Amino acid sequence: MKISLSINKKPYTLEVQEVMPLLWAIRDMIGLTGTKFGCGVSQCGACSVLINGKLSKSCSIPVSYAVGKEIFTIEGTSENLEFLRQAWNEGNVPQCGYCQSGQLIAATSLLDSIKNPTDQDIDKALSNNICRCGTYSRIRKAIHKAVALKNRTL
Questions:
Q1: Number of domains the chain contains
Q2: Would you tell me how many other CB atoms lie within 10 Å of the CB of residue 42?
């Protein structure tokens, strides 16, 4: 089946089976490898992307679902993601780093909906993203720092 996808505001046309997981289309067909395969059953969050602004686990979504929608991956750019990237780097957040693209996408989704989240907001928003290294406190601090960085530039 020939499908068209919009990923990070760029058009892509692929010849794939409509039931292929969106993750495989993003990684294997398009070559955007920042979105990771973790568990394959929507439990870990490593495959997180935004679809029309909604946090979604791409490992369990058929590629056909994404047709006509805007997909945003870790390779994309947005104001919130840029502040988060800076805060992540300054706070030395990643340990092994495997989950971080999913964590950053979940944090982007959070800041897109809540301008100044509390610790409780952060914990709830990122609760479906697993970090095996346990960097949750650094992630929380980095999200608060990203808010502060953004507020300084406004």
A1: 2
A2: 16
Residue 37: what are its φ and ψ, rounded to 5°?
-90, 125
The last residue of one of the domains, among 37, 72, 107, is: 72
Mean pLDDT of 39-45: 94
Identify whether residues 45 and 94 lie together within a single domain. no
87, burial (CB in 10 Å: exposed 0-12, middle 13-18, buried 19+) = buried
| Partners of 21 in the β-ladder | 62
56: phi then psi, degrees, rounded to nearest 5: -140, 145
**pTM for this structure?**
0.96
For residue 150, give every residue at least 6 positions away whose Cβ sits within 8 Å of its Cβ, in sequence order, or none.
79, 80, 83, 111
Q: Are residues 131 and 146 in the same domain?
A: yes
Neighbours of 111 (CB within 10 A): 23
Domain boundary at 46, 72, 98, which? 72
Angle made by CA atoms 74, 99, 22, in degrees to the nearest 5: 55
72/143 Cα distance (integer angstroms): 19
- Percent of residues, the chain, with pLDDT higher than 90: 98
Instruction: List the domain range (segments joined by +) for residue 42.
Output: 2-72
What's the pLDDT at 153? Answer: 84
